[in-house]
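As described in the Methods, two query proteins were run sequentially through the folding procedure within a single session, without resetting any intermediate state between them. The first query and its resulting structure tokens are shown here.
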Amino acid sequence: MLPGVYRATKKDGTEYFRSSITFKNKHISLGSFATEEEAAFSYQFASRLLRDHTLSLENYAGHKVPLAFSKWISLVNFRDNGMYIKTPVYLKKNFFLYYFSPDDYLTFDIDDLFYYSTHSISRRGGHLFVADYGMQVNILSRYGIRNYAVAGRDYRFVNGDNKDFRYENIEIINRFYGVFRTEKEGSMVYEARIHGNGDWIVGRYQTETEAAVAYNKAASVLITKGYQKAYPVNYIEELSTAEYHRIYKHIPISARILALTPRP
């Protein structure tokens, strides 16, 4: 067999070829190929890539490359930074880049390296997900951002770059369901809204925790009156059970909601 190439057989008996390389005592699989020659080409190219610093992240498209782009990133990062990572990550000084293509990448804090070195990111409908414990998890949840939060309303990217997921660049505006920060008579207040027959204002409050509790209270009232059963619940970790119940008991909510006639 040619250097770096191994013959293998599928369950149905079909023969194919695998290629791998060892660099800095690390054994790296390069993929599966239909022919021995293709597998050998991948080995030869990987060997060059791991030693030739003129081959960079930027010139992937300029070469006839027998390697997947994600593998190219992993090998270049290993060459330049001495760390082999299976996902398409390239390390910088205090952050790292997660690549989808040469011109398409996300930026993360170095604190997230372990997570994204073991979790691959996928896109669906403009959202970014990882597979975690058998579920598709939106990466925004790592920042405390709700699944259906709206960029610009519930959170924002401070520097305007919606691909920069460093913690300092993400500002959460509204942490809770049904709670929106708004201006009223020159002051910032937190408005709680809930859906009944249309969107109803529950009330306006000085703090977001009060507004979150008011939303929960309004949801309970609507449920007892026969309205929608699937209202999400705001969990407010900073409040003790006693504090939560005290606020819940005394927080005012819309008289319109309280006066609703129960549905049959």
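Immediately afterward, the second query was submitted; its sequence and tokens are:
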Amino acid sequence: MEIKVRAYEENDLPEVIAIWNEIVEEGNAFPQEEPLTYETGKSFFAAQTYNAVAINAETGKICGCYILHPNNVGRCSHICNASYAVSSECRGYHLGEKLVMDCLVQAKQHGFGVLQFNAVVATNIHARHLYERLGFTQLGTIPKGFRMKDGHYEDICPYYHKL
């Protein structure tokens, strides 16, 4: 599968919402608990500094996406945060790597100096291995920092990468 990453466009919204909601409904990675509607999704993606989509070049179908935004304000506004979503039917094709690599470039182009992930669930081994392979540094572990869909708590691992 040949994957191209490009800037999000508003007409991508229905596919991007579907992919985002799949992750929300799995309940093991994103902090959101409520799925996005068309209206809330439009506002959510419009509020980001940058959004991108991963597209199957052969079919034109969107397979994944990411959001990029400041992690904080003022004196910490040089630190950004991002979240990635890959459709379950497209996992295993290294889309996450393509999304993170593009995000690192976009973050720097948007003037950020550090990309930080606040809450990588410790059991999300694939994401953690990817981040470490790409040069991210784990900052520690926050015990029971994430409530899973079934109600039990898992540790979270913050990561950062200088841009």
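The chain has a mean pLDDT of 97. We note this only descriptively and draw no conclusion about the first query from it.
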